[in-house]
Amino acid sequence: SDRxxxxxxxxxxxxxxxxxxxxxxxxxxxxxxxxxxxxxxxTALFAENRAPGTVVGGALEYMRQF
Length: 66
Description:
Elements: E1 16-18, E2 21-26, E3 32-45, E4 53-64
Antiparallel strand pairs: 1-3, 2-3, 3-4
């Protein structure tokens, strides 16, 4: 709902489009054990009796393989 004029909550769903951009760090054996990345995404939201909405966001990621 709008930030200034709050309305009752409602359920909305939609597809997510995004990418993972990772940079891996190799250990002495040449295996990638750690990676740092960003994940930008876009989501179109659809709900009954409501105008479509959008969400644009991102995440910082860290991956560690044991």
